[in-house]
Amino acid sequence: MGSTRPWFQTFFLGLGVYYLSIPALGADITAPYYFDSAQVLPKGVRTLRFNYLMGGANERFDSSGTSTLLGSSMNTGVSYREFVDGQDSPLEKGLLRGYLKQQGRELDSLAGETTGALNVEIDARVPILAWGMTDRWTMALAVPMVTIRTHIDTGFRAHGDLQGITDKMVTEGQGFKALEMKKRTKSPIAENGDKHGYNPLTPSSSYLQETSLGDIRLINKVRFLSHKQYALAFLNELTLPTGRRVDIDRIIDVPTGDGQFDLNFGVVGEYNMGPRTTLVSRLAYTWQAPDRVVRRIPQDSKALLSSDLDGQVLRKLGDGLYLSAGGSFELNRQIKLNTQYSFQYKERDEYEGNQYEAHRYDFLGQDSAQSLHALQLGVNFSTAHLFLSKQFPIPFDFNLMSAIPLAGRNVIKDPTVIMELGLFF
Hints:
Elements: E1 18-19, E2 46-57, E3 59-61, E4 67-69, E5 77-79, H1 80-85, H2 90-102, E6 110-132, E7 137-142, E8 145-158, H3 160-171, H4 175-186, H5 188-195, E9 207-213, E10 217-226, E11 230-239, E12 252-253, E13 262-272, E14 277-288, E15 291-296, E16 309-316, E17 320-330, E18 335-346, E19 350-352, H6 358-362, E20 370-382, H7 384-388, E21 396-409, E22 411-412, E23 416-424
Antiparallel strand pairs: 1-12, 2-6, 2-23, 3-4, 3-22, 5-6, 6-7, 6-8, 7-10, 8-9, 10-11, 11-13, 13-14, 14-17, 15-16, 16-19, 17-18, 18-20, 20-21, 21-23
Helix pairs in contact: 3-4
């Protein structure tokens, strides 16, 4: 009975989220969407599994581990100096600077603040084919199709002093300058994006729904130690860069892949405490291959929007460490409860280039070191025993799971719900 259980419960879908207008959002690691296992399929046995993942990105743990709204970094103060710097010519800058001085306004005092709200919904449909090559070796292929819905809302909240200045401009016959200032304060983020050559942030582009292929994964599991009470298996995963890459011409973009190869390898251990209780632990390491990408190079750590392009940026995404411990308890031969705790860590991303000053490339990797503590809970229903005893015509199992981030740095906080149906043949 134990040998007929599928080893591959679901797979980990890493959606790289890349933000150009706010500090880098961690999404290279997320709460795992599977329960680790040292089980493999018997030789010649196959399973076709279909996973449906429902999640989102509305909150995140920032670099200090504090829970914040996803778009909170877009809520920032704007000084009068930034209005002066935003003028189109040196003459206009000088005229506005002089006018503000005449009105007794300090250039470094705040004129208002930008406002922003960002919500992301993610649905993934993942068919997985696994095949028992031998009694100890199973191969699998996972092909995700991902739907991403992104909604962004930006604006500006003016202080009373700014409103007083624009009113005075109108009374002094400078209404055209007042209208221009109001235009620039209507949506400074979109205005700044237009200035640097990004795609316009219009009402139609503020809500996007896109479906595309994610990164395909090839998996090998080899059980090298097997005993009635315990088992050890080697696990290897190769991630192919088949997902949609980030569009650097969008102010905010949520791609379905990071555009490079990943190699993950680790060891899974399983210990049977009794006829109904099993403990499982896994230790794994992920190596991310270096590559060259096209990127906009920021001027400083706060102004990430940039018109300076470099088509030969050397990128090395941070390698990762994964550790999990969990277990399962069989209520009966059809229903099993699962739980698992996991810890993940990813190193800082590194960028290098020769076209601009070296320190500017460091801004691309800021806030990219990540860590995550997560909890997974699930229930499994299987007809395997009923099928073997000829009481049910089809061998299948159904899993309902929840992946819950507990704490971390630079990672998404939102939980994910996963439903999985697996057929054996």
